[in-house]
Amino acid sequence: MPPLTPGPPSPLSSCPVPGPHTPPFPHPQRRLFEKKQRRKRQEPLMVQANPDASLRPRRPWRREERLAGDIDPEEKKEESESTVKNSPLAAQKKVSKTPEGEVGAGHSHVGSSLSSPSLRLGEDMEAYVMRPAQSGHTVQCRISRDKCGVDKGMFPFYYLYLEAADGRKHFLLAGRKRKRSKTSNYLISLDPTDLSRDGDHFVGKVRSNVLGTKYTIFDSGVNPERRNFFPETARIRQELAAVCYETNILGLRGPRKMTVVIPGIDAQNQRMSVQPQNEKESLLSRLQRGASQGLVLLRNKTPSWKDESRAYVLNFHGRVTAASVKNFQIVHPDNPDYLVLQFGRVSSDRFTMDFRFPLCPFQAFAICLSSFDGKLACE
Description:
alpha+beta; 4-stranded mixed β-sheet; 6 helices; 12-stranded antiparallel barrel; Tubby Protein, Chain A; Tubby_C_CS; 13% helix; secreted
């Protein structure tokens, strides 16, 4: 499946690659897979960023540094003045102080202020990642994928960092694909060292159908069908989003087509509660029936074909620099110029994720995790 290409120039910072060094002699199948992926990313039909986009180089993350602090160890050498002392483990419940202001003054971005809602000292981290972004502001983040280790090639770990106004990176969320599950299941936690379903910092999950074409995003509440196994006080889970993927009119040779549905926001700027008691009340069922009252329907922006480069292109404003079928931009159908979410590749295991109101950090990260997942019917 061809990837989406990033757009016009704008300084971009690369994401670091996490984790320890890969084994010196990778499995032959692994080498074959990586070779195939490299060849796939060179196909002209993949969505790409603007080839003229200028970048500000960054270096890899390391697993041990991620757990000890948020700053890239290589960047620490280059920019010693911006050393970060806050640890993701310390950020589970409380967040380090970050002054408000513009995120990356040198970055041109999608038509709105780049001021991120600041993480305030003493703020509850779970409340922050579940709260919709401040209206009129773009939140710039970065996702780093860790595929090193015995089984991380098949079940990688994903780490979400907020790019703060002062250049620091603050750990927000971690996700991993669950093993021994009938369908793809991604668990999301506030603790990068504990990504279990029963962990104290589990905040939600992403679940797919068998084909990997439909995804539902839940918070940490209980499945209504299993409520008898939990105390009466247990809260029934909410559905926070649903994502549908389909092949477009170009078939297997074109970019992915996405539809995202999320609960609406009320007059008090609170997310409307969607707590289905059965499958018929789910977001996906309501989407299929056209029962969209109280919901927000979003779609991916269709990339344009560029004859000069013979590739599909999207304007990522310098935030995406590598071609990938995973690259996308989500917009409101009635206002295609309002970018709600954009996601794309910077290098093999580094990605940028920028989002705006009405999404919250958790929803945006979960939607991006669905893009990482393999899709039998779309590729």
